[in-house]
Amino acid sequence: MVTLPDATPFSLCGGHPLLDLVNTLGNRFRADGPTELLPDYAALLRFMEQTELLDAAQVRALARRVAKTEAERSLDSARELREAAASTLYATAEGSPPQPADVRKLTRYLQSAQQRQELVWAPSAAGTKFAWEWGASQTHADLPVWILSQQASALLTSEAMSRLRACGCETCRWLFVDTSKNHTRRWCDMKVCGNRMKARRFQARRP
């Protein structure tokens, strides 16, 4: 069983769940090391709920049923997925080809997710149709990892990749999709990194 503590909400400034996942390693390029914002499985579940990839009932079910060892293993997988995605996305943002090993890792996670879904007949008021569902896997510890793998596939194959940017603050460099009118957004959050860099420039100009 996993305890779900109250904690500071994640900053979801990326414009896509995969970018918000990458951004859960804070100050990734800071000289004295980054800040891990996914310290445990409970934090991963909070992230999934805040990004609306899982609802509150699904999160509670996972928290009740997932054993500690399974939770730790799944957290490791989520972080591995995050870092493979980070390496791929930062390379893309800089105009460089991604590392083949990272692409293979992302592919492996996506294929694992696809194998866990079941095609079911889903009648509705709008008409009957087939749908992909998680079935018996919906309470598996790796459900967050599988869902995030699908988010990785969705973003990496979308037109949004042409608007992928990294924050202009050298220690932050959080990723985001630039949806500004003139595609000139520079900061992950103007109130945080934008103001911080303005203050630095102001201090540098002072005699």
What Rg, in angstroms, do the CA atoms define? 19 Å
The number of helical segments is 7
Query: Low-confidence parts, pLDDT < 50 over ≥5 residues?
Result: 199-206
CATH superfamily: Jann2411-like domain
Principal-axes shape call: globular
Instruction: Report the strand count.
Output: 6
The average pLDDT score comes to: 89
| Spatial ordering of strands, largest sheet | 1-2
Q: Which range best describes the helical content: under 10%, 10-25%, 25-40%, 40-55%, 55-70% or over 70%?
A: 40-55%
**Broad CATH class:** Mainly Alpha
Largest sheet: 2 strands, antiparallel
CATH topology: Jann2411-like fold
SSE run:
HEEHHHHEEHEEH
Integer count of domains:
1
Distance between the termini: 58 Å
Strand content: 5-15%
Structural class: mainly alpha
CATH 2nd-level architecture: Orthogonal Bundle
List the helices and strands and how they pair.
Layout: H1 17-22, E1 25-26, E2 35-36, H2 41-50, H3 56-65, H4 68-93, H5 100-116, E3 118-122, E4 129-133, H6 143-156, E5 164-166, E6 175-177, H7 190-205
Antiparallel strand pairs: 1-2, 3-4, 5-6
Explain how this protein is built.
This protein has about 210 residues and is mostly helical. The chain has helices at about 15-20, 40-50, 55-65, 70-95, 100-115, 145-155, 190-205, and strands at about 25, 35, 120, 130-135, 165, 175. It has one domain: Jann2411-like domain (Jann2411-like fold, Orthogonal Bundle), CATH 1.10.3300. It is built from seven helices and six strands, in the order H-E-E-H-H-H-H-E-E-H-E-E-H. The strands form three sheets. Strands 1-2 form a two-stranded antiparallel ribbon. A two-stranded antiparallel sheet has the order 3-4. Strand 1 and strand 2 form a beta hairpin. The protein is globular.
